[in-house]
Amino acid sequence: MEQTKTQETIVNLAPLFNPEEGRTVISPLGNETGYWAGAPTVLFDDKDETFYLYYRLRNPRGHGEDERGFEVRIASSKDGENFTDVWSVHKRELNSSSIERSALVKVSDQLYRLYISYVDPADNRWRIDVVEAESPSSFQVENRKKILTASDHPNVEGVKDPYIVKHENKYYMYFVYAKGLDSAGSEEMHQTGDVHNTGLAVAPTGLAISEDGIHFDWVDTVIPVSDAGWDQYQSRLTTIIPTQNGYTVLWDGSVGVEQNYEEKMALAVSFDLRTFAKLNVDGPVLETASGKAVRYVDAIIHEGSIWYYYEYTREDGAHELRLCKVKI
């Protein structure tokens, strides 16, 4: 605990936001539990001075093809607040039961990548692929390439929710992975195509590193779940904010499968992007006023402020995508 406090002081943590003060930027398609708009990735493109926002839509179960993570979209905006959709893909185009958070990355003025996570129809396990295009509005998912699958590492039952950082000419990819419990059978874990909602696997954050952003080597677990406590079921890195002497890291935690869709945000720090120290061992640092989810936070530094985009659980049970700006 003493070491963690020292790290917190040295890193000079980025200022956080009040989730109740956020502005709604993407609304769900309905006004009750099961309707979601969220899982954002945001990119500000200096080339055309445009914000690009990737997000996921979900409807309640029972909507046939239009349920779970049935569609993901990319929207553009000149002010970062009012967005217009410019690209979308439905899960049927991947022959998948669900698509989740993905990472939108600008490689150069002529090359953009979308690292997309979805349920592999071959084995019902989450996987990560990549598609490339000359603009965020022109991705063709039929040209996707494999990046990481569950079979790439022993005792892994799925990989999803990638977050990409370019550091020292290498690509660092953080992702949540399903680590099956000893008592769980593989068939039981994957019957529904959503191992994270079975209670049969925990979900720590792993790290893989690449020279070219295509061929990744699995490095290690970097944010593990705790042995007990509020984050013993999931510890998912969602964004990294550089500070003067290190990095402020935001991650989602949950105590058990009952909170699988209602995770809450916590903090960690890092100096090298390979080792991390959790700062919230007793509970989350952010949740809604009514104790519900603030999750999938992504952040960029723009015009002297941190722009936080996050998924927020409303009083009616639906999830919406919000933006909150905090001056540095």
From TrEMBL:
SUPFAM superfamilies: Arabinanase/levansucrase/invertase (SSF75005)
Origin superkingdom: Bacteria
InterPro entries with a match to the protein in the record: Glyco_hydro_beta-prop_sf
Protein name per its UniProtKB record: Glycosyl hydrolase family 32 N-terminal domain-containing protein
